[in-house]
Amino acid sequence: MRKINKKRKYINIDKIINKRFYCYFVLIVFLFGIVLYKSFSIMIIDNSEYSDNLNKINNKFVYGDSTPRGRILDRNGKVIVDNKARKIITFDKTRNIKTKDMIRLSKIVSKHLDLDYKKLNDYDKRKYYCINNYDDCYKYINKNDINRYKNKKIDYNELLNIMYKSVPNKIISKMSKSDRKSAYLYYLMNKGYSYDKKIIKSNVSDKEYAYIAENSEELPGFNSEEDWERYYPYKEVFRSILGSVSNNGLPKEEKDYYLRLGYSLNDRVGVSYLEKEYEKYLKGTKAYYEQVDSSTLSLIREGSRGNDIYLSIDIELQKKIEKLIDEEIKRTKNEANTKYYDHSTVIIEDPNTGEILAMASRRIKNGKIIDNTPSILTNPITPGSVVKGASMLVGYNSGVIHIGSTMVDECIKVRGVPEKCSSHTLGRINDITALAKSSNVFQFKTAIRINEQEYYPDMVMAFRQSSFDRYRKMYRSFGLGNSTGIDLPFESTGYTSKDSRAGNLLDYVIGQYETYTPLQLSQYISTIANSGKRYQLHLLKKVEDNSGNEIFKYDNKVLNEIKTQSKYMKRVRKGFYAVCHDPGAYGVGYLDNRLDGAGKTGTSQSFIDTTGNGVIDTETITSSFIGYFPSDKPKYSITVTSPNSSIPSKDGFASLVTYRLTGKISSYMYEKYIK
Question: What is the reported pTM?
Answer without folding.
Answer: 0.82
